[in-house]
Write a structure and sequence with these properties.
Order of helices and strands: HHHHH
Largest sheet: none
Strand content: under 5%
Radius of gyration: 18 Å
Number of helices: 5
Helix content: over 70%
Number of strands: 0
Length: about 130
């Protein structure tokens, strides 16, 4: 479980870095939208999606941090599923933007989460398991 703690800690740190740097670039997105000929709906959607991605990284960072500190807070199966979020995001970035530092970091994060999750118990967290004899 030591490796899973370290890898979830690494994942949390990378997701915090990604969420922060993504949110920090928001004003550039606002300026780009203002200078574009996008209809208001699509410009507003881009701004919302931009901040939603940052928010998602912060929530995943908190989840990885929690599981890194308390490995029994979530099952390995749940964490395996959550690791698919940065993997899917990285895949979409590679498809639409190409090689990009953010996509590389998300890919590393996803692999770290997958390996860490594989070290956790596959069933429900231990605090929700029924005791023998029930």
């Amino acid at each position: 479980m030591r490796w899973s703690r370290l890898l979830f800690g690494l994942s949390a740190a990378l997701l915090l870095l990604g969420g922060w740097s993504h949110a920090a670039a928001y004003q550039k997105v606002v300026a780009a939208v203002a200078g574009s000929n996008l209809p208001a709906y699509f410009g507003n959607a881009l701004k919302a999606l931009w901040l939603m991605d940052s928010s998602g990284m912060f929530v995943l960072a908190a989840t990885c941090g929690l599981v890194g500190i308390r490995p029994r807070a979530a099952s390995g199966s749940v964490m395996l599923l959550l690791a698919l979020i940065p993997a899917a995001t990285a895949t979409l970035l590679y498809l639409f933007i190409g090689r990009f530092l953010g996509a590389h970091l998300l890919l590393v994060t996803s692999v770290a989460m997958l390996v860490a999750a594989a070290c956790l118990p596959a069933g429900a967290p231990s605090s929700t398991r029924a005791s023998p004899g029930r």
